[in-house]
Amino acid sequence: MPAGYYEYTVFPLEGVWDLIDKSIPATVKSNLKYTIMIRQPDFLTKELFDMFLDQTKKKKPNSFLENVRFEDIEEGLCCQMMHVGSYDDEPESFARMEKFCGENGYDRASKLHREIYISDPRRTEPSKLKTALRFSVKARR
User: Hey, which residues does 83 pair with through a beta bridge?
Assistant: First the structure.
């Protein structure tokens, strides 16, 4: 067992979303690009990750495995809220988040944002989907 090992439940799927063309509104879905990830437990090291990835490539070859990577992410200061409802209604939540930030001396740092998918869309009615929305902020000077 690795040092610090504990039994854990797989963390929820996350997506980091950005715009391909910054001059096109964020509501145009064909203009979005994304990175999909799953948080890993703290005991997983780069060495263990590489070993498991090599084993997986041998057992279940898949060209997408060439793009899999293990990295640490530092997000810094963020604004986050739980969005309940359809993914199509997220712009309303982002507008509320930006208003909150503005009223409290912060500005959104970029249109890049993170979504953490708490609900399974295959098993949850769209109006009840739960998605944590997060974006980086900077304090006004």
Answer: 131
Tokens for 53, please give them: 């990835």
Beta bridge partner(s), residue 136 = 78
Distance in angstroms (rounded) separating the CA atoms of residues 85 and 63:
34
3-state secondary structure of 92: helix
Half-sphere exposure of 20 (CA within 13 A, CB side): 8
For the CA atoms of 47, 49, 52, 56, the dihedral, rounded to the nearest 10 degrees, stands at -130
Helix runs in the chain, H state only: 46-59, 90-103
Give the whole-angstrom CA distance, residue 15 versus residue 34: 6
Whole-model pTM: value is 0.89
User: How much helix, strand and coil, in percent to the nearest 5, is found in the chain?
Assistant: 30, 30, 45
- Which tens digits make up the pLDDT trace of 2-35? 899 999 999 999 999 999 999 998 888 899 999 9
What secondary structure does DSSP assign to 114-133, as a single string? EEEE-S-TTTS-GGG-EEEE
Amino acid identity, residue 114?
R
pLDDT-derived band at 141 (thresholds 50, 70, 90) equals: confident
